[in-house]
Amino acid sequence: MDSLITAAARALAAGDPLRALDRVALRDDAPALALRGIAMAQIGDLDRARTLLRRAARAFGPREAVARARCVVAEAEIALVSRDLGWTAKALDTAQATLEAHGDRLNAAHARYLEIRRLLLIGHIDAAERRLAELNPAPLPPASRTVHELVTAGIGMRRLRTRAARAALTRAERVAQHARIPSLTAEVESAFEVLNTPAARLVANGGERPLLLEEVEQLLTSKALIVDACRLVVREENNVVSLARRPVLFALARALAEAWPDDVPRETLIARAFRLKLSDESHRARLRVEMGRLRTALQPLARVRATRRGFVLTPHHAQEVLVLARPVEEKHASVLAFLADGESWSTSALALALGTSQRTVQRALVALAADGKVQSWGRGRARRWMTPPMPGFTTTLLLPGPVPVD
Predict the structure, then answer these.
(1) CATH number of 201-325
(2) E-strand stretches of 212-266
(3) Which CATH number fits domain 333-398: 3.30.565.10, 1.10.10.10, 3.90.1170.30, 1.50.10.10?
(4) 225 φ, ψ (degrees, to nearest 5)
(5) Is 94 helix (H, G, I), strand (E, B) or coil?
(6) What three-state secondary structure class fits 51?
(7) What is the gyration radius of the CA atoms in the chain, in angstroms?
(8) Angle at the Cα of 159 (from 404 to 80), degrees rounded to 5?
(9) How many CB atoms lie within 10 A of CB 135?
(10) Where in the chain are all domains bearing CATH 1.25.40.10?
(11) Distance (Å, whole) CA 116 – CA 121
C-alpha cells in the first residue's frame, strides 16, 4: 500500500474525510475508490459513496477477498445510516466470516456491530442482546468500544434498565474522548439527551404529567394496575396482558382506566371504541360483546363490572389504576416516532421496523405529508421520507415490537 493510501486511511480512521479526499480524490484504482467511498459516506453523500464502494469491490482482484469483504461492510454501514434496512444479513455474515478467517478481527467486529444495530433498530432486541454478548470489546480500539457501549445503552433503554444504560453511556463518553472522532462524540451526546427527554405521560386522577425513561421504569415496578398505551398492554408488576392485536379492547380498557375509580357511560365507551357519535341498540349489543371479551382478557388482573350507566374497572389487588401514554398522540404516531430521529427512511424500512405492510406505511406517510408533518425526496425505490426532530415527541423506545404473525 503506497503512502497516499496509508495517509488517507489514517485520516478516515480519525474522522477527517476531507483530508482523506485530498490524497485520493483523483485516483481510480481499487483501494482509492474504496477510501473515496468511505470519505463520501462520512461527508454525507451516501448515494455517491455506495456507487464508489461497488466499483471498488468489482475492481479488487479474485485474490483480494479481504478488500472486497471490507467494501461489503462499508456498504452495509451506509445502508444502516440511510435506513435501507432491507439488505440481507447473509452478505454481511459472509464478509464477517472472511475477515475473521484472514485475521482482520477489527473489521469483523465492526460487521457484527452493524448487524446488531440493525436488529436493535427494527425491534429484535433479544437477538441483538444475544449477539452482543458474544463480542469482547476489550481488545478493540476506542471507536469500536464506544460503539459497543452505545449498543449496550440502546438495549438497556429498550429493556427499561436505565441505570445500566446511563452507566454504558458514561463509559461510551469516556472512551469516545480517546477516539477523538466528533461524530461518535455527537452520537453519545444524542443518546444522553434521550435519557433526559420525556418518554411518556402519566394519566391519572383527571390530570397528566410527563415522565422520563427512569420514571417509567420506576412506575412499571410499582404495584399499580397500568394500562400501557405505549406498548398496548395492561400490566400489574410481572403480570402482563397484551392487547396489541385487539385495538377495540385496548380502547375500552384505556377509557375505563382514565375514569377510574368512576364508571364510564356506555355512550362514551361506544364513541371511544367504535368511533361513533350516535348509538342505538345494536351498538349497545356490540359493546356488551366487547366488554365480555375484555372481562375475559383482564381476568388475571381486574374485574370489569356493569353499572347502571356504563362499566367500571375494579383491580383485584392494585390500589390504583394508571395510564401510561406517549408524549404526543395522533393517528400515525408510530410512523412519526421513527421519523423523529431526523434520518431519511424508505417505506420498506419503516414497514420492517413497524412489523406492518408497506402499503399501510405508504398510506400513513401520504396522510402525514398532506398535513405537512413529513416530506419526501427522490422517486420510486429511491424515495425517502423524513421530518425534522420534533421536541418532546415520543421516541421509539416504548413502542411495541413487531407483532408476530400466526
Answers:
(1) 1.10.10.10
(2) 225-228, 233-236, 239-242, 264-265
(3) 1.10.10.10
(4) -85, 120
(5) helix
(6) helix
(7) 25
(8) 70
(9) 16
(10) 3-195
(11) 9
**1-55 per-position pLDDT tens digit:** 588 888 888 888 777 888 888 888 888 899 999 999 888 888 878 888 889 999 9
Domain 3-195, CATH: 1.25.40.10
At residue 74's C-alpha, the angle toward residues 346 and 131, to 5°, is 85
SS3 content of the chain, % helix, strand, coil (to 5): 55, 10, 30
Q: Which residues, in sequence order, are bridge partners of residue 310?
A: 265
Looking at the chain, which residues constitute the CATH 1.10.10.10 domain(s)?
A: 201-325, 333-398
- Which residue in this structure is represented by grid cell 426532530? 389
- Model confidence pLDDT, tens digit, residues 314-372: 999 998 999 998 887 667 777 777 776 666 777 888 888 777 888 888 888 888 888 77
Q: Nearest to residue 257, comparing CAs of 221, 209, 205?
A: 205
Q: Supply the pTM of this predicted model.
A: 0.77
Distance CA 226, CA 237 (A): 9
Distance (Å, whole) CA 263 – CA 85: 46
Q: Are 57 and 50 in contact (CB under 8 A)?
A: no
